[in-house]
Amino acid sequence: MARAGMTNVIRRLRALTDAGTAEETLDGVTYWSDDQLQDELDRAARLLVNEPLEPLWITEDGAARLFCYAFPFGRHFEEQAPDSSWAVRDALGNVVSGYTVDYALRRLTFPTDQRGAFYTLDARTFNLEAAASRIWEQKAAFAAKKVDWSADGRRVRGSQEQRHCRMMAAHFRRMAGLRVGRMRRLDDEGGSR
What we know:
It is built from four helices and twelve strands, in the order αββαββββββββαββα.
């Protein structure tokens, strides 16, 4: 079962990939469950450990006060939940609570002035675009078994679906910063020497 803190990340991935819950069945396995999408996200995960939170000082009544902290850059965070890796820690490594989180703004807010306290974050962050690229590649593989056909003046082209899936995979691969490398032999370059 998908982790509770993954709900919003899975929802975003499902939207980027147009992945229905009963899109394809292969060898008795139906695609795309939340667990399958979470597996793809976990392949594109980075675990942050003891990442310092950035204090966001404000001036209030002529005094510097600290209520908010920015958490480190990450593409998409697994949200705080009992089964997630999310933990805010103080300078001694103790887990702290009593704050609210705004994931979109990447902010933690405490109800009281923290007076310069140092905090770190443990969390999973995901390259959503890398996961989307892999899902589109799998969708292209599913589409490869479909054939072009026509009947009664209608044309259905499985090859168009496959081409579309491959184009979407390439699009998300570029967005994710992934490169597809090519290997070449150096001992055979330009013939014999």
